[in-house]
Amino acid sequence: MIERGISRKNFLRAGGIGVAGAALLGAAACGGEEQGSQTGDGGKGLTSRSDIRIVMVTHGSASDPFWSVVKNGADQAAKDLGVEFEYRSPESFDVVEIQQNMDAAIASQPDGIAMSIVDQEALAASARKAVDEGIPVIVLNAGREAWEQVGALSYIGQTEFEAGVEAGKRMAEEGVKSAFCVNQEQGNSSLAERCSGFTKGLGGEVQELAVQGTEPTSARNAILTSLRNNPDVDGMLTLGPQGALPALQALKSYDRSDEVAFATFDLATEVLNALSEKRMLFAIDQQQFLQGYLPVTFLTTNVQYGLVPVGEVRTGPAFVTPENADDVIELTKQGIR
């Protein structure tokens, strides 16, 4: 289904890249079945898959509901292709620790690095260093503005500002005039873009509410207090599960919750249940399983066959609503959505 707010031109462009990616995956799979019977290594190409090692360095802990699915996708790709894979992330959002993880990844001289450039000023130099040392890089999830500048092969993810615009438009269609944009991770440039896009799309008043996503009780209390102190607010957008879950708790305690239209970026079990129960308008799904799966796949095919898709590969925005939430719930049980 083509979601509203995405032009036919953009849909076809995304679909064309998706078809190219599918063809590439198919070629790799065919090589694994046909040539593999001759070489024992999925069609050796320039090197054996068993000799390929990919490292992924992100800003998201594997225990986070969103990033656990990214890691599931990457693990599955590594298993499907028979390559070695390592996931590195901080325990909580920490740019210095991300830099250290990148330094360690580069020093280990892998065959490819997939990374999120969540802070361009701090991390672009790390990406460029990897490229300069001959390590191919693919940027995922965050860093769309920087991937070409640092010499990466591609960017895989959604366009954050445009996704925020679409969220704002949908809220405006529901009659929302004044809203909170709840930011659970200050310093994350992607989240800032989401809020900026939301403000533009809504065309009304938007207040950014900063909370600490790693402290859910504190975040819940801050959201509840803000709602009570701003009774004119009739909409709220959170920027990820670490904001959405405290927001759902806050709304349970808010005596005017039925007057607040609520939506979020990204999925979690609690979010999907709330959608199924029609307590939320929508959740923006950037299909993060692909953000894990595709970088490992594309880096492998680049090292083995010298092939890589040209340009960006967009995985979102897609929208989960009360109408399709139950189907998505089934997929979350498998760690795919």
Question: How many domains is the backbone divided into?
Answer: 2
Assembly of the depicted chains = single chain
- The overall pLDDT, averaged over residues, is 88
Shape: elongated
Distance between the termini: 17 Å
What class would the helix/strand composition place it in? alpha/beta
Largest sheet: 6 strands, parallel
Number of helices: 11
In the CATH hierarchy, what is the superfamily of the largest domain?
A: Response regulator
Textual characterization of the structure:
With 337 residues, the protein is α/β, with parallel strands linked by helices. It folds into two domains: 8-158 and 286-316, 3-Layer(aba) Sandwich (Rossmann fold), CATH 3.40.50.2300; 160-285, Response regulator (Rossmann fold, 3-Layer(aba) Sandwich). It is 49% helix and 16% strand. The chain has eleven helices and twelve strands. The chain has helices at residues 8-39, 65-81, 95-107, 120-132, 160-173, 189-202, 216-229, 241-253, 269-276, 288-305, 325-332; strands spanning 53-57, 84-88, 112-115, 137-140, 154-158, 178-183, 205-210, 235-238, 261-265, 282-285, 313-316, 318-320. The strands form two sheets. A six-stranded parallel sheet has the order 2-1-3-4-5-11, sandwiched between helices. Strands 7-6-8-9-10-12 form a six-stranded mixed sheet, sandwiched between helices. Helix 1 crosses helix 10 (288-305), helix 2 (65-81) packs parallel to helix 10 (288-305) and helix 3 (95-107) runs parallel beside helix 4 (120-132). It is elongated, with a radius of gyration of 20 Å. The protein starts with 7 loop residues before the first helix and ends in a 5-residue tail after the last helix. Mean pLDDT is 88; it is low at 1-24 and 26-40.
